[in-house]
Amino acid sequence: MNLRQYEYALAVAEEGSMTAAAERLGVTQPSLSQQIGALEKHLGVKLFTRTPSGMTVTVAGRAFLAEAEIATTASRRAVTAARAADGELAGELIMAVHMGLGARQLPQVLGQLRTRHPKLQVTLHEEPDPTDMERLVRLGTLDMILMHHFPPGCTFDIHPLGEEAYVAVLPEGHPLLSGGTALRLEDLASHGWIRFRRASLLDDHLARLLADAGLSPHTVARASQISTAVRLVAQGLGVTVVPASAVPEGFEHLACPLLPSLTEPVLVGVRSNPGAAETAMLDHLHRQNWCGAELLRRPAAV
Description:
It is a single chain. By secondary structure, the chain is of the alpha/beta class. The chain is globular. The longest helix has 27 residues, at 59-85. Strands 3, 4, 5, 6, 9, 10 and 11 form a 7-stranded mixed beta sheet that branches. The protein has a two-stranded antiparallel sheet with strand order 1-2. Strands 7-8 form a two-stranded parallel ribbon. Helix 5 packs across helix 10. It starts with a helix and ends in a 16-residue tail after the last helix. The protein contains 10 helices and 11 strands. Helix content is 40%, strand content 21%. Among the domains are: 1-73, Winged helix-like DNA-binding domain superfamily/Winged helix DNA-binding domain (Arc Repressor Mutant, subunit A), CATH 1.10.10; 164-263, Periplasmic binding protein-like II (D-Maltodextrin-Binding Protein, domain 2, 3-Layer(aba) Sandwich).
């Protein structure tokens, strides 16, 4: 039994298919099946149930895979630490990012890291649902988390990066855009709204803002991505409110500041005893502008 077999079993569980897992791992399907069979024989339990539609994890398999993920994460960190001690950043850094955060800043940060440390891989979990987030935190899989608020008792070391401004987004040619003045939520109350998937942190935030203002505007559509919501607004389906830095390039002229100003803190959590990779990532994050103020000076539409 070895870590490679652990990685094979995790891949099969994630893909739900021997064929897909073998393709992802770059091995043949017979070889993968043989390794899974050898692992199950060594453990004395079945990790998967073979069905016509694919591979289903058994109860024993779920228990094993939870520990296997911890073991493979520890192995990855050990390799990263050893190489960093020799002056080389390599391995994998895993980060969770909540929707709307870092849409402009993170690509710049990752580009800078890639230039300086080409052997360092960064994996992003974008907007994991609460269950996935809890699992990732519990298993110790995450190295960093970028979000607005951390719950009490969080074991990550929290670093403030700045304040994120929220903006209203209105359709092309909307009369409220022509004056260039800040808008109140009440100004948007009679419009249809583009909202986000239920239970997402962003939609929960919007729901609280509207409830605090005593507003209950009609929801005309829901989107799972901010870029999609903004494009729906641009086509005249409705209005929305989003983090300024998440407005896609080319749509800045549709963004309008809010009055009173709505902001949320941008925080990054770093696991205790961070390595050189986390430290390098944190340094690059601190160099970014997180306020999104440049979007409040709306350039004219071309």
